[in-house]
Structures
1.
Amino acid sequence: MKQLNKTQGILFLVGGMLMVAGAGCFVFMWQQKVVCWVFLLGVILFTLMQLMQTYEGNDLVVKRLKRIQAIADILFILSGFLMVDTAYQYLLPLFKSQDSSGYYAYLNYVYNKWVILLLIAALLELYTTHRINYELNKTKNT
């Protein structure tokens, strides 16, 4: 596994901390229109640094886990965009119609759905991180 240099490692950690701080502040409704951008910035830093950490080996299990991690990164980015939409409701005009059913469709399909994507991405990230570590240690010991 290609290791990140010191600057990239710091950016990786800062991105993770911005994600946690942004999501926590957003959930507790503190300056939602600002912290949604903090979360999105953290997501971008985190995913970019994680994508720079490539695997150069031949182990198919680790390659598969890295692909799953890339899916988690995409879900992180989508959750960031949906969090921004929850704060600003950019997608609401796409759902509006002559009656109020468009607003309810927006509430059902878009509003606050960033939480679901964030949960799925976090679970995938947790799983792949531990499995990649286990697989790399297993190959190192043999």
2.
Amino acid sequence: MTATTSAAHPRFAAALDALGLAELHPRVRRFPDAVRTAAEAAAAIGCDPSRICKSLIFAADGVPVLVLMDGASRVDVELVRRHLGAHKVTRAAADVVRETTGYAIGGVPPFGHRTRTRVLADRNLLAHDVVWAAAGTPHTVFPMTPEALVEHAGADIVDVRERTA
């Protein structure tokens, strides 16, 4: 299957090809209803939300940074701030997400972005044999081992998951 026939967003399909991951094209799943949230994606796939890889853009002192987090957890922005040595970390605005990644919120994949950003991956992702991530649209996802996902995203493994009481 070529990038032009992939269910993935064209930019993400091209990224798969460029990374030598064309074998993933047939594994991209497209759903009729949007799967913008981890809960929606997990329900559509039929997996636990922790097997969903959320791709979240934050602004660390105004500089975009991508955080990859399992779908059952929340990012602790204070831990992100400390890890980066930033003064302030906030969720990036929708226009910044689109400008940085080339994708809309709810469809941001873990790699294949318009610009190169720093990537942090929470260690909890590695607890699974396979995780599912957005394939560039709010209707598409793809499976990958978390180790391969972290490698292709160029992510640093960190502990930035919010602890629950």
3.
Amino acid sequence: MSTLTLDAAEKIVAAAHERARAVGKAVSVAVVDAGGFPIAIRRADGARPLTPDIARAKAYTAAIMQRPGKMLKKWQESQPVFFGQLSQLPGAALPIMATDGSVTIKKDGEIIGGLGIAGGTADEDQQIADDVLQSLGYELEFAAWGVAGRPAGKDV
């Protein structure tokens, strides 16, 4: 069983801030473990004050829902009441956010955490997260909901 270490989380955060600077954005970055508990959260100089909380909620969502936020959008659109109630469950520590910039961290087929980026546009947050995780060797493919073992969008 793999775990996401503090050292690995700090590398993700540093790479995300470097990538964000390269595109001219001041962002906050949060990395949580598979249970949604924070490992590292950092707000860049100039990032808006609420962005650390948004980044943490995005990371939490990606970890506990075990799918990137963008994969949750259709579910949220089709069942908004149910989806909204997920954040109200007694065990929910943070809101569930079906949005870009919320990416599940997966290594060797195992979900080990979540990454949240906040401060750019939705597309920028997502691109920063994807670029960073891919550059560090994490997996970005996830099976569609209800389909065991086959990544979404892949015909095997």
